[in-house]
Prior knowledge:
A hairpin with a 5-residue loop joins strand 5 and strand 6 (90-94).
Amino acid sequence: MKEQITICGAGLVGSLLAIFLVEQGYTVRVFEKRKDPRTNSEDAGRSINLAISHRGLHALKDACTDLDIEALKLAVPMYGRAIHDVLGSVVFQAYGEATQHINSISRGALNILLIAKAEELGVQFLFSHTCVEYKQTEKKWIFKNLQGDSIATEQAEIMIGADGAFSVIRKNLLGVLNKDAKIDALDYGYKELEIYPKEGASIILKEALHIWPRERFMLIALPNTNGSYTATLFLSMQGEQSFENLKTSEEILLFFKTYFEDALQLIPDLVSQFNAHPTSRLSTIHTDDWYNDHTLLIGDAAHALVPFYGQGMNAGFEDCRILSEILKDKKSYSTWEEIFEVFFIKRKVNCDAISDLALQNFVEMRDDVADASFHIRKKIEKYLHHTLKDAFIPQYTLVSFSDAPYSEAKEVGVLHATILNEIMLLPQIVELWPTVELESEVLKIVSTYIGDVI
Ligand SMILES: Cc1cc2nc3c(=O)[nH]c(=O)nc-3n(C[C@H](O)[C@H](O)[C@H](O)COP(=O)(O)OP(=O)(O)OC[C@H]3O[C@@H](n4cnc5c(N)ncnc54)[C@H](O)[C@@H]3O)c2cc1C
């Protein structure tokens, strides 16, 4: 008989994991608290679109033939950041080489693609089933239906918790261990707003991630295939400029007029959208307890991170790919706990690294990108990569366009920051870059850190 694996959560990670597992011959059942998103258009998640990059696409490709290609049909490429200053000027900053791009994809459409593919391959989905607890003595997981009037029990040999940042599976796992995850809530909230298309076309540059950086807060917008954009305001919950102080129509309009006037022109119904859409919080989840002998956490349930590097889903998809690779060698392990331990050792250090990088990138996005010297810094970084190739790969490139471990990308980032800090001290670097003399000075500095490159 085929081994059965139960997954809790048919979000992005749970449904992709189901595909990997059914393709390896397991019988897979997925319990999901929402209704089937293919027949119910309720808001499938917190952000309407999100950026998928190399790691996410690699996992899709490995899970099932052409799945990455099918996903990309739902996406808009983004070749760089379009940075809007407070006067309305826009500067474009490429993410990497001219052809390198990340992709803005509809969360709901991607989730539906994955669920449909998993079901086609034989995965059984039980929608409207919320996991509520684990009865340890009976070794049973308890699920309630939407009305709460019927109960399903699952005596899962193996349970994988892909039930997101507020995971019930995690709470039960940790409860048994008398522990709790550390939840670091940012004092920031976010609110999504829609920028509509103008007669089916985009109003602003389409193939870019738009950022309105304002030091302590920012607005961003990602394109959708229909020419609209999903904008997200990231702002403190409390304080002078905060959601707390944006209550009346006048306050909301004045805030946008002061800080995002060009964006305000693109959102004619700003106040009604602002009032209708929820304000949500952002958190990082820290826990070392991802598994026991029959349970494993994956995706946000194990390591939710803030969204500023666009990597939460990508990291969760990479989890699925790595777990599947370990399972291909299942004969080398005598218990599931050993398999889960190997997975934990491979992933924990890297998920910690991307959590840290995501927090750091918030400062870069909301503040640094608005600074003229930052643009020169990026240009020098690009020049160094172009000149030194693999000897100087920028951190963003390692994170978004490669499979390099996140921990390695983090280390490289620290080294490059040190090098670039020294370079930026060269006299008149901002005013004069690039000149032949400065290029040679820059290469000399780099040589002192990474060996002779001249
Ligand atoms: C504003 C914002 C922007 C983001 N942008 C990006 C981006 O650009 N790129 C990127 O890679 N990542 C991004 N992310 C992160 C990304 O959304 C998450 O990392 C990703 O959704 C995690 O997927 P998941 O399947 O682990 O969890 P989730 O997407 O949270 O899915 C969990 C699923 O489990 C179900 N569930 C929960 N509890 C239960 C229960 N008790 N019983 C049964 N089912 C349950 C839920 O209904 C849901 O379907 C962003 C996040 C936010 C908040």
